[in-house]
From TrEMBL:
<dbReference type="Pfam" id="PF00440">
    <property type="entry name" value="TetR_N"/>
</dbReference>
<dbReference type="InterPro" id="IPR009057">
    <property type="entry name" value="Homeodomain-like_sf"/>
</dbReference>
<dbReference type="InterPro" id="IPR036271">
    <property type="entry name" value="Tet_transcr_reg_TetR-rel_C_sf"/>
</dbReference>
<dbReference type="GO" id="GO:0003677">
    <property type="term" value="F:DNA binding"/>
</dbReference>
<dbReference type="InterPro" id="IPR050624">
    <property type="entry name" value="HTH-type_Tx_Regulator"/>
</dbReference>
<dbReference type="InterPro" id="IPR041490">
    <property type="entry name" value="KstR2_TetR_C"/>
</dbReference>
<dbReference type="InterPro" id="IPR001647">
    <property type="entry name" value="HTH_TetR"/>
</dbReference>
<keyword id="KW-0238">DNA-binding</keyword>
<feature type="DNA-binding region" description="H-T-H motif">
    <location>
        <begin position="24"/>
        <end position="43"/>
    </location>
</feature>
<dbReference type="Pfam" id="PF17932">
    <property type="entry name" value="TetR_C_24"/>
</dbReference>
<protein>
    <submittedName>
        <fullName>TetR family transcriptional regulator</fullName>
    </submittedName>
</protein>
<feature type="domain" description="HTH tetR-type">
    <location>
        <begin position="1"/>
        <end position="61"/>
    </location>
</feature>
Amino acid sequence: MSTREKILMAARKAFAEKGHDGVSMSEIASNAGVKKALIYYYFPSKEDLYYEVWRYSLDELEEHIFREVENENVYVKKIKRLLKAYVDFVTNKKEIIKIIQREKENLTRKDQEMWKKVHKRYIEFRDKISGLIEMGKSDKKILEVVDSEVAAELILNGLNATVDPDKLNGIREIIWRGLINSDNEKAGD
């Protein structure tokens, strides 16, 4: 693991435990086993480091769930796989999910450039899920009344509500039944 990656992993752990405002660069340096000045070599500020952790975390989540659906041609199975992959990620990557959950209320902050960038990256991710839902609507696999942005927010927020696998699977099933046109449900089994 490179020094940069060690710093990112130590920062991710610290931010997951204490949030952006609860962590000092000294603490991150100590956890990474590096001098604080070395962090500033890679990341000019705490905000830059936080953004990189956020981006890296969302990239990992996005890659995980979309890798599961990229080769699936049956749309209903694609959505079901996306939901299952999200549940899998939430139950196995708790640190990343904690960061996403912890800083959710800060996504609408406009007082710092970093929060604007964090929000923009979140919207890009949400829009990718929303686009998948829109595709299903145009193929008549998703109910026409479903607002794709609201459905994407429900997926992102609902599947982050808990790390209990049974509850997550229950939430996944509710989301699934709310999206899929009942005429297409058999194709997802």
